[in-house]
Predict the structure.
Amino acid sequence: MVRHVILWQLKEEYSSEEKAAIKEGIKTGLEGLSGKIPGLMDIYVQTDCLKSSNADVMLDSLFQDLDALKGYSVHPEHVKVADGNVRPYTRARICMDFEVE
């Protein structure tokens, strides 16, 4: 199995209220992919973080294998969420993929 973890920072120009709405859109959009993408076994988005954090949103997802992760990256449902709910609002993205048993 492959775990896919991403941390995002939102663009700074948004108000607290706008950031809350953006975070909810990211969470709803990405978690809504559950059951729609072959090989996606689990997906979770964390939007509530401590003040000591320097990221605003975390995606933690689990895939059957590397091919499933590659398929997810280009799957139309994922691309729609990424282009509509994530990319327009984020300024930085950090990704870590790793194998798990």
In short: The chain has one domain: 2-99. The two ends are 6 Å apart (CA to CA). Strands lie at 2-10, 40-46, 57-63, 90-99. The helical segments are 16-31, 66-74, 76-86.
